[in-house]
Design brief:
Shape: globular
Helix content: 40-55%
CATH topology of the largest domain: Rossmann fold
Mean pLDDT: 95
Low-confidence stretches: 496-502
CATH architecture of the largest domain: 3-Layer(aba) Sandwich
Number of domains: 3
Largest sheet: 5 strands, parallel
Number of strands: 17
CATH superfamily of the largest domain: HUPs
CATH class of the largest domain: Alpha Beta
Length: 502
């Protein structure tokens, strides 16, 4: 079985998590990890707070707070929200002044240097004279030179490419709105152009969602271009005391995941030997869950960096998502147009929030959260259907029913199980596909109930394969059915053929 190191793109700890975060990488990574463990894989889920993000500096100025004080406060909120959503991250790292994080960054950087993949040059960068701020990311915005959308100069949220600040129009300071000027500064660059052919080969036959395949094709037409990795006078981790080697956060993402995993193994699991088993044995795989706007760093930079790291042998898999809207409008924390995940759970419940967000997950295209539709769906599915179905399954079990099924039902369940294997596979996972499958099994049980037919096997199947999506509800259903999850898997899922009852 595989050893899977599952990652969630680190959120900037300048606020709490909303439903868009949940419907994107956060819930999907949790459901994936739970499903892979059901399938027998060793699986560890890690993430961390993006303490060194440039946006932390700007937010701290706006609130007149110390950035690390703000990061600590919001990281506590983020972890509390994850707990309320039932998202079980094995380890959440806090990178600020963290030795495991710094060691991982140093290892990644030094490996790239030894491979000849990093060089220095003087570049012209945007600068605000009035505010004494550089426009690498948080402090400057303009129109992306690829798609024309409003963007910083780091990674465009609309097209996911890395804008060239010198070609962006209307580039202004975010603090005072003045147009920025250009100043020379010596920076270090990752020679991404040297990795073009190897990256193309890496992704040529890799299963990918269509929109991210289009992004990669566009990126290979563009370059990829060499990429600045240091940002003097901005947010980042100093690898030199004088601040001349301040590595920015997007370069450090791979290091963050590996550092978090290393800290978890050494300080919490007390199994440091597992690091080599996952990262160097050739049996391990990095499985990244990320928003579309993080595609460049994760799919261009991190595979290139991993190639330079001697002794590391890990496959990489990427699950990207588009954005979720709220009643047809874009979610916005700055405009306070959002539903915070903790509020959704408080108003509804954890399992209904998880199930519905999985159903509308923007895996392929933008999807929408409609408040009224959610309320109606929850009332019908949770308050009526599942309660009635579970009660009937319990009555059938009390009267001595089992998981044996007649030939027609056996064929139907085989099809459902085959779909489960597909949507929970390591390479073709779909949280939305799993949620849709669960709806189909629920509807099959409803139809059978209306016809006066037995539903116990269908409800038991829901209780077993639904556990990654709605953990508490799944346990309740199995209690009604009076089967354990393992019993259902052995008798309905992990068998070469469903037992026929003549």
């Amino acid at each position: 079985m595989s050893k899977l190191l599952v990652t969630i793109t680190p959120p900037t700890p300048n606020g709490d998590l909303h439903i868009g975060h949940m419907a994107g990488p956060f819930l999907a990574a949790d459901v994936y990890a739970r499903a892979q463990r059901q399938r027998g894989h060793d699986c560890t889920l890690v993430s961390y707070s993006d303490d060194y993000q440039s946006y932390m500096l700007r937010r701290a100025i706006e609130l007149d707070r110390a950035p690390q004080e703000l990061a600590l406060e919001n990281t506590d909120k983020i972890n509390d929200t994850l707990k309320k959503m039932g998202i079980e991250v094995d380890f959440w790292m806090r990178p600020y002044r963290n030795k495991y994080f710094k060691q991982a960054v140093e290892e990644t950087y030094e490996s790239a240097v030894k491979a000849g993949a990093i060089y220095k040059k003087v570049s012209q960068e945007p600068y605000c004279e009035h505010c004494d701020k550089w426009g690498y990311e948080a402090f400057g915005r303009g129109n992306c030179d690829y798609c024309g959308s409003d963007s910083d100069a780091s990674q465009c949220e609309e097209c996911a490419h890395t804008p060239n600040a010198s070609k962006m129009t209307e580039f202004r300071c975010k603090l005072c709105s003045s147009k920025m000027i250009w100043r020379p500064v010596e920076r270090e660059f990752l020679a991404l152009s040297n990795f073009r052919n190897s990256l193309k080969t890496t992704f040529e036959h890799m299963p990918l969602r269509p929109f991210i395949r289009r992004f990669l094709n566009e990126e290979f037409e563009i370059g990829p271009l060499d990429w600045g990795i240091t940002r003097p006078h901005d947010g980042g981790l100093d690898l030199k005391p004088d601040g001349s080697r301040r590595i920015h956060t997007w370069f450090m993402g791979l290091s963050g995941y590996l550092g978090a995993f290393n800290e978890y193994l050494n300080e919490y699991k007390h199994a440091p030997w597992e690091y080599d088993e996952y990262c160097r044995s050739g049996k391990g795989r990095l499985v990244h869950f990320l928003g579309y706007d993080c595609a460049f760093s994760h799919m261009m930079v991190y595979p290139a960096l991993l190639q330079t790291m001697h002794g590391y042998h890990m496959r990489q898999t990427f699950y990207t998502n588009q954005f979720l809207t709220l009643n047809g409008k874009n979610l916005s924390t700055s405009r306070n147009y959002a539903i915070w995940a903790r509020d959704l759970v408080a108003q509804a419940c954890t399992d209904s929030a998880r199930f519905y967000l999985a159903l509308i997950a923007p895996e392929q295209d933008t999807d929408d959260f409609d408040v009224d539709k959610f309320a109606a769906w929850r009332k019908e599915t949770f308050s009526e259907v599942l309660v009635k179905l579970a009660a009937q399954a319990e009555r059938e079990r009390i009267h001595g029913d089992s998981l044996k099924v007649a030939s027609a039902d056996a064929a139907a369940i085989k099809i459902l199980v085959a779909r489960w294997f597909e949507v929970t596979s390591v390479d073709h996972f779909s949280m939305k596909g799993l949620a849709v499958l669960l709806c189909d099994v629920i509807n099959a049980a409803r139809d059978r109930q209306l016809l006066g037919k037995r539903i116990l096997p269908y409800m038991a199947l829901i209780g077993a394969i639904g556990a990654p999506v709605f953990p508490d509800l799944a346990k309740q259903i199995l209690r009604y059915c009076r089967f354990t999850e393992n019993e259902v898997f052995q008798q309905l899922v992990y068998v070469s053929a469903v037992e026929y009852e003549i």
